[in-house]
Every structure is written in structure tokens, then in C-alpha cells.
Specification:
The structure holds 2 protein chains of 2 kinds.
Chain A: H1 2-39, E1 43-44, E2 51-52, H2 63-70, H3 72-105, H4 108-123, H5 126-137, H6 142-154, H7 170-194, H8 198-206, H9 211-222, H10 224-239, H11 243-248, H12 256-265, H13 270-301
Antiparallel strand pairs in A: 1-2
Helix pairs in contact in A: 1-13, 2-3, 3-7, 3-10, 4-7, 5-7, 7-10, 8-9, 10-13, 12-13
Chain B: H1 6-29, H2 46-52, H3 55-88, H4 95-107, H5 110-128, H6 136-161, H7 165-172, H8 177-188, H9 190-206, H10 209-214, H11 222-230, H12 236-278
Helix pairs in contact in B: 1-12, 2-12, 3-6, 3-9, 3-11, 4-6, 6-9, 7-8
Classes of the chains: A mainly alpha, B mainly alpha.
Chain lengths: 302, 279
């Protein structure tokens, strides 16, 4: 007992603090992940569990990865995912940048309230935020009817429609992605814009710059780390999104998250699902490394 | 700049309308008497009444709360340990891998976490016979794993801000390192621990994707119940349920925010007082 106490006093307490979460993450995060990587080169079998490493002479079966390149289904799903995530990121930036800039221009008391209002949707259920848009985009909703009237009023009579087909399209996916991920864009942008020195703006104005020139020459270049951080915080989860495309997306044009889920559950093809998962992760490693690079540089400059 | 930034403020107003109009519309339509979810048919609270007598909803809510309470508590303990390990333990063997392990789950797409957890549990059942049945235990394990790293980020940020001089002073006065941890470090970062717990709790309460992969027959959490209904379309009773959830969370966050701001203000006042009397 005394030796145990001595061990605890000396180094046991720190071993426990490091060891417990370490072992937990290795067992429940790293190990399952490594199993998926190994699974991606296994062979699908009609047994339970539905895979094996034996049989043919090379134990490693790269068939999954070969199909990934050859079968246009996967390539298309990757392109749709990247396209939707990229478009959503662009519109988040387009809307989020002026919002973040506006937040730095309001009085301090207002700012705290407004920031709270930006963060509040974060805490409410993600699923319900998607659901709220399903209500708005449906054919007979006030929102759809209003937009339909507007559309019919603008376009020539021949193009008139009874209701806009908003649901089950890539448009719906991008719209809901912008809605749910906009706070991820605003917060890092706000953090980087808030640090800027307003006297630089004044100096540029005094020297004869027009306000939009000040923005292009002074504000925008200094906020690039914020743009990159916000962009990746939107792009990375959006590219692997499953809930939004399942609820409002076009079922005939699935995103990659849907493909992984379907390969796994419906097709019971664990090796293929794993190969797609590994490919998606590989694609995400690149933007993450860019993010880390800029993050480290931003930290260094502080 | 004396000119009012009209353009920026109008975009800000538009942005907030974009944030809140869908939620407000959902709340309004939860009081819709019509069975058709999107056509207004007069005011009614009948969906709330029917919700209250819906045993399935209550059961799912209870399961979700149970999972969220257990997983948030364990995730907070493990996540806090991980945060302290990274910021305060200096260099230890395997530190690089460890810091990778606490950031990777943050960017891992939920589908992949879900699929890998399910494969892991299925193989585990094959090898050691556990878990024979997926449900409460497997969902909770998966939730702890992916929410603890969010706690770690919060704890890390707080520890980096906090002045280590107090810890060194206690050490000089003869405290053991673990006593310093319990008497000084943990009380000082307590607000961060609390926000970490709240975040882990809401993440668990809200999760659909990972839960749908790690659940088994008979274990339907509230998000899974909503998910299965929402896939079929918009219904007024889900509007009512959504309204209650949004209001509960909104109220909780506002109250927590006010309490934390007050506590922080009091702490800062105490600190100022301490410095003044110290001098």
C-alpha cells in the first residue's frame, strides 16, 4: 500500500493522467480506424463477418481501390461532394465575411449579444436545423410560394412554374450546408478581423484611398488566415456530410458520405466502404495540412 | 470612420434573418391546426398534447438523456486529463501520436467514425463475445470517444491562458504536483470544465450519424426517432417536438452564458482586489 502511494506521489498521478485518455483513444479511435484501413484491402465474402484476407495468393486485394478509379459512380460521388462543399464554402465566405466585418463595427454591448446570436444555432440540434429548411423548401410552404411568385413575375410567361423544385436537389444541399456551417465561417473571420488595427484603415483613407480600395488593400490581405481557417472548417465537414444530402439531397446524385453508408449497410461490402472512406480521408488530409500550416504561422506571428 | 457602414449592417441583418427565419417558421407551424405541415389551418396546441402522451417520444428522450449524462461526464473526465497531459506534462513518450489522436476525431467525417466503430464492435463481438447486443453501452462508448476531444480543445485553450506562477508558488510552498492539480489547476479551469461538459452533453444529445451506426434493436434515441420520421417528410408533431427542443436548448445556453459571464466578472473583480491588497 505504501509503495503504491509512493508510486502515485512520484509519477503515478501523471502516468494516469496521460495514460487513461491515451489508452482510451488508441483502443476506441485508432484501433477501429486501423481496422478500416486494413479492411480496405480485404476481399468481400458472403460469410459473417463479410470479409477475408485469405484465398488468393496476394493477401492484399486492391480491387476496391481499382473500382474507385474505374467505376464512374465513385468518381461522380467524389466530384459532387467536392462541388457541393466548395460551393457551400464560397457562399459561406460571401455572406460570412461582411457579417464578420459588420460585427467588428458595432458597439461593444451589441457585439456580445450578436455574437451570442451567431453561436446560439450551434447549440440547437443540427438535425432540426436541417429539418427547419425542409419545411421552408416544401412545395406548398409560404417560402416556396413567395419565391415562386417572385420567379414568375421576373421570368417570361413561358418559364412560369407552379412551384420551384427546391427539395431533393444539389441546390437544397448547398443552401442547407451554408445555413448550418455559416457560424464556422463567421467566428474565425471575426477573430482575425477583430485584431486588425483600425488606424491602418484611417491612414489609408487619409492618404486618399476609396473605402473599397481600403478594403482590398488593407483589410482583405490581413484577414487571409481567417478566410483559410473558416473555409476549411466549412469545407471539411461539408465534404463528408451524410445527414443533409440524405434529407434534402438528390438521391440519384449521392454524395460520398452516402456512398460509404450504402456500401456498408445495403451492399454489405465492408472492403469497398472502407476503401471509399480511406480515399475520402486522404483527400481531406491535404486541406487539413494547409490549415495546420497557416495556423502555425498565425500563432508564430502573434 | 464616421460613415455608418450601411452595406455591412444590411448584410448582417440579412444574415440574422437567414439564421432565425427558418427556426421561427418552424415554431409558428408547430401551432398549426392543419395536418398538412405547410398549409396554415388555424391555431392549435394539439400537437403538443399528443406529443406528451406519445410514449415512444418520452422513452427515446429518456434514453438520450441517460446516454448524454453518462457520456458527457466520462468525456469531460477523459478530455480534461488529455488537455492537462498535453499542456502541462511537458514531453512524454508518444506525445506526437497523442496530440494527433486528440485532433483527428475533430476532423474525421462522422460517417467514417460511425462505420469504423460499428466494424470494431462487430469484430469485438466475434472475438471476445462482447458486445453481444449493441445499444446503450456501445452508443455511450462511441459518444465518449468523439466528444472527449472537444472537451480537450476547450481545456487546452484555457490552460494556455492561465498564469503558471500560481502553480509554481504552490509547488515552492511544498505541495505535491497532484495536490497542485486538485487545489489550484482544477478550480481555476472549472468554468472551462463546465463548458466542456455542456458541449459534450449537447453533442451527445444531438448526434444522429454515429448513433445510427452504433445502436442496436430497441435502442432508439430521440435524434434517431426524429431522423426516421423526418426522412418521410415534414409533420406537425415533429414541429412541436423541435420547438420544445430548440426552446429548451436556447434557454439553457442563455442562462449558462449569463451565469458564466457573471462568474468571470466576479473572478476578475476578486483578482483585482487581491492585487490591490497585495500591493
Amino acid at each position: 500500500m505504501t509503495s503504491l502511494k509512493a508510486w502515485f506521489d512520484r509519477r503515478g498521478w501523471s502516468d494516469l493522467i496521460i495514460g487513461l485518455p491515451y489508452v482510451w483513444l488508441v483502443l476506441l479511435f485508432l484501433l477501429p480506424f486501423l481496422i478500416v484501413v486494413a479492411m480496405s484491402v480485404a476481399t468481400k465474402t458472403p460469410t459473417a463477418p463479410p470479409f477475408s484476407f485469405g484465398g488468393e495468393v496476394p493477401w492484399i486485394n486492391l480491387g476496391g481501390y481499382a473500382r474507385l478509379v474505374q467505376d464512374p459512380l465513385y468518381l461522380r460521388a467524389f466530384l459532387i461532394s467536392l462541388g457541393n462543399a466548395g460551393t457551400a464554402t464560397f457562399f459561406c465566405l460571401l455572406l460570412g465575411y461582411p457579417m464578420a466585418l459588420a460585427l467588428t463595427r458595432v458597439s461593444r454591448s451589441w457585439r456580445n449579444i450578436l455574437l451570442m446570436l451567431v453561436i446560439l444555432p450551434f447549440w440547437t440540434s443540427f438535425l432540426l436545423r436541417v429539418y427547419a429548411w425542409m419545411g421552408l423548401m416544401g412545395k406548398s410552404s409560404w417560402f416556396n410560394e413567395g419565391l415562386t411568385d417572385l420567379w414568375n413575375w421576373i421570368v417570361p410567361v413561358d418559364w412560369a412554374v407552379k412551384s420551384l423544385p427546391m427539395m431533393h436537389s444539389n441546390f437544397a444541399v448547398v443552401l442547407v450546408m451554408v445555413y448550418t456551417y455559416l457560424p464556422f465561417m463567421i467566428l474565425p473571420l471575426y477573430a482575425s478581423l477583430e485584431r486588425l488595427d483600425p488606424t491602418l484603415d484611417e491612414a489609408a483613407l487619409d492618404l486618399g484611398s476609396r473605402p473599397w480600395q481600403v478594403f482590398l488593400d488593407v483589410t482583405l490581405p490581413q484577414s487571409i488566415p481567417g478566410i483559410i481557417a473558416g473555409g476549411l472548417l466549412v469545407f471539411i465537414p461539408a465534404a463528408g456530410e451524410l445527414v443533409i444530402p440524405s434529407l434534402v439531397g438528390d438521391a440519384s446524385a449521392p454524395m460520398i458520405g452516402r456512398v460509404i453508408s450504402d456500401e456498408f449497410s445495403s451492399a454489405r461490402d465492408w472492403p469497398m466502404a472502407s476503401a471509399v472512406a480511406v480515399a475520402l480521408l486522404t483527400l481531406m488530409v491535404v486541406p487539413t495540412m494547409i490549415y495546420n500550416h497557416y495556423q502555425a504561422r498565425a500563432e508564430g506571428s502573434r | 470612420m464616421t460613415r455608418r457602414p450601411t452595406f455591412l449592417l444590411s448584410v448582417l441583418a440579412f444574415g440574422f434573418a437567414f439564421f432565425y427565419v427558418p427556426i421561427l417558421s418552424m415554431i409558428v407551424y408547430s401551432f398549426n391546426a392543419s395536418r398538412l405541415a405547410t398549409v396554415w389551418g388555424g391555431f392549435s396546441t394539439k400537437w403538443y398534447v399528443s406529443l406528451w402522451s406519445n410514449a415512444k417520444v418520452i422513452e427515446a428522450l429518456m434514453l438520450s438523456l441517460k446516454i448524454a449524462l453518462v457520456s458527457a461526464t466520462l468525456a469531460t473526465i477523459l478530455g480534461t486529463m488529455a488537455g492537462i497531459a498535453i499542456v502541462r506534462m511537458g514531453k512524454f513518450r508518444g506525445r506526437t501520436l497523442f496530440s494527433g489522436l486528440v485532433t483527428a476525431p475533430l476532423i474525421m467525417p462522422e460517417v467514417i467514425t460511425g462505420v469504423s466503430s460499428l466494424i470494431f464492435f462487430l469484430l469485438l463481438a466475434q472475438w471476445i463475445g462482447w458486445p453481444a447486443q449493441r445499444g446503450f453501452a456501445t452508443i455511450t462508448l462511441a459518444h465518449i470517444t468523439f466528444s472527449m476531444v472537444f472537451v480537450t480543445t476547450i481545456i487546452q485553450a484555457r490552460l494556455l491562458q492561465f498564469d503558471q506562477a500560481i502553480e509554481h508558488a504552490a509547488m515552492d510552498l511544498g505541495s505535491r504536483p497532484w495536490q497542485v492539480l486538485f487545489d489550484i489547476t482544477l478550480p481555476v479551469i472549472f468554468p472551462a470544465i463546465l463548458s466542456g461538459w455542456l458541449l459534450a452533453f449537447t453533442i451527445s444529445l444531438d448526434d444522429v450519424v454515429i448513433t445510427s451506426f452504433t445502436t442496436g434493436p430497441g435502442s432508439t434515441t430521440l435524434p434517431l426517432l426524429i431522423w426516421s420520421k423526418v426522412k418521410l417528410g415534414v409533420t406537425p408533431d415533429i414541429n412541436a417536438l423541435a420547438t420544445l427542443m430548440v426552446l429548451a436548448v436556447g434557454l439553457g445556453v442563455v442562462i449558462a452564458g449569463v451565469v458564466m459571464t457573471r462568474a468571470e466578472a466576479r473572478r476578475m473583480a476578486d483578482e483585482r482586489l487581491a492585487f490591490r491588497t497585495g500591493r
